[in-house]
Structures are given as C-alpha cells and as structure tokens.
Amino acid sequence: MANNNKIIQWITKPRKITLSQKIFFVQQLGVMLKSGISLSVALKTLAEQTTSKTFKTILVDLQQGVEKGNLLSLGLEKYQKIFGELFINMVKAGEASGKLEDVLKELFVQMKKDHEIIAKVKGAMIYPSIVMAMMVIIGILMLIYVIPTISGVFKELNVALPLATRILIFSSEFVLKYGIFVLIGLAVLIIIFNRFVATPGGKKQFHSFLIKTPVAGSIIKKVNLARFCRTLSSLLKTDIPIVQSFEITSRVLGNALYQEALLIAKEKIKKGISIKESLKPHLKLFPPVVLQMIAVGEETGALDDILEESAIFYEDDVAQTMENLPSIIEPLLMVVLGIGVGGMAVAIIMPIYSLSQQI
C-alpha cells in the first residue's frame, strides 16, 4: 500500500507536460465525445496516441477511474498541479450540466488563446535577449583577453593614459582578480531575490514595480486583462457561480496585484455589490472602458459574451504590441551597443593617438 502511494505521488508531481499537449488532448477529447465515442474509449485512444510517458500514465489512470464509474473531474483532481483549477472546475461544471463536449470546446479556445499570448510575448523577447547576452559576453571576453594585452603595451610605453583608458584597464584588472567573487556574489543575490519574490509581500512589491515600468507595465496590464476577460467568460459560460469564478480567475492570473484585486472584489460581490462597483477601486488595473463593458454585460445579462469580446480586443492588442516591440526596442539596443563599442574604441584609440602626436 505504501508503495502504491509513492507511485501515485510520483505520477502527480508536475512533469514536463506542455501546454500544447494539453491543448491537443482537450481538442481531441471534445471531438471524440461529440462524435459519440464514449469517454473511456476516448481516453484510451488518446493514451495510445501520446508520445509523453508521463501523460500516457495519467490518461490510463483517468480511463481506469472512468471505467470504475468515477467522474473525469474526480480523476483530474489528483493532477491539479498539472491541469490547474480552471481546467478541473470547468470539466466538473460540464459534467454537472451534461454539456462536457461544449465545455471542452470552450476550454480549447481558452487554452489556445493563452498559449498564443505566451508565445507572442516569448517570441518578442528572444531578439533583444540574444543581443543583450551577446553584448555582455563580448564585453567580458574583451576585458579578459584583449584589454590586458593592450594595457601591457601602454605600461611598457610609459605614457600618460586618458581617464577612459584607465577606467577600462581598471575594469579589466578587477574582472581578472575578483571575477569569481563577482559571480558568487551575483549567484547569492539571485538566490536572495528569488526567495524574496517567493514571499507574498516580496511578490507583490516586485509585481507592483513591473507594472509601473514604461513598456513592460503596459504589456503586463494587457496580458492580465485579456486573461481575466477570457477566463471569467469561459467560467460563466459553464454556469459556474460568479463568486467562485472570481476566485478561480484570481489564481489563473499571473500578477499579484490583479490576484488581490479579484479576491477583494469577490468579497464585495458576496454582499450583493455589482461587479463594476467591486472593481472600481482598482482603476489602475481595470480601465474605465472595461468596467463600462462589464456594467453593460450585467444589465443585459450577456456578461460572458461581452467579456469574450473584451478578451479578443486585448488579445489582438497584445499580439500587435508584440509584433511592434522589436522595432521599438531595436533602436534602443543599437544606441546601447554603439555607446559600449564606441566607448571601448575611444578608450583604446586615444592613447595611441596621443603617442603618435608625440612622435
């Protein structure tokens, strides 16, 4: 019995099951159920198709549970860290309403849009990240291998060096002597920072700082608003109560400020206050246009559809921003690169020029 518990614990640990694999699973499961294939057979078929051993083990376990008469949502609860609360609650709602295939379709759209936003953000950050990394690597290599040789020549010539050259030589000597200690210090700072951010207070302060930054702050707001509207819309469409929907959505959003705002709003909604009024104190996070759309949705009874439209707007806005981001960042990178290369070149050329003037 103890061995069985250990096996279950090992399986239920978060593994490398990608969002793409889960999207494919949801899509195919929904299609199979809609075509009349039983849930047990559908799970068995998908288990045979998947290339991930971990995912295969999970699907087989889910299939065996369904064959015993258990609900799919009950089996998914063992793998909450893999599938998430949103996924499980929507499946549970679909089972309760008898519209599991419709819920799976909604989940597919939700996860696909989420995947697209993440992919857009990651894709936009690849180019500037590579450029910055190469700048740092080339700069360090210059300080370690090139500058010591040049500084040796200058010392032999015994000439007065300009300030820029002295700073460059000092930087090179510092890196050579204390580079290992700098690396250790950076590693310690990163560990301390990660532990600080892992605390509720630290996470909130860091996210508050990020949301106030000029470019990144706007992107973070748009991403969180898109996920808020999309998630809440999906939950409401599956007839999950509004209070529970706010609680689940708060856990789906990545920013601590948005999470806190939704939990505070949830408590107000419990008391009968409208969604618009509950979110109104957080205008820095939820723009007036979003609150107005929510108010219209509440009045017309079409909140889920209006939230979906708002989600599409912000998702398109994020996509457009991510497409334009490289062209916005590129000039800035070129300026930084030019200053770095130009400064190093001037520091090296100035003593040579001074020496040629003396000859």
TrEMBL record:
Domain Type II secretion system protein GspF as annotated: residue spans: 25-148, 228-351
List keywords of the entry alphabetically. Cell inner membrane, Cell membrane, Membrane, Transmembrane, Transmembrane helix
Q: What is its main location?
A: membrane
Q: Which InterPro entries match?
A: GspF/PilC, T2SS_GspF_dom, T2SS_GspF_sf
Per the record, its GO cellular-component terms are: plasma membrane
Pfam families reported for this sequence: T2SSF (PF00482)
Report TM segments.
130-154, 174-197, 332-353
Its record classes its membrane topology as:
Multi-pass membrane protein
- Compartments where found: Cell inner membrane
Q: Which family does it belong to?
A: Belongs to the GSP F family.
State the protein's name: Type II secretion system protein GspF domain-containing protein
Q: What is the lineage of its organism?
A: Bacteria, Candidatus Buchananiibacteriota
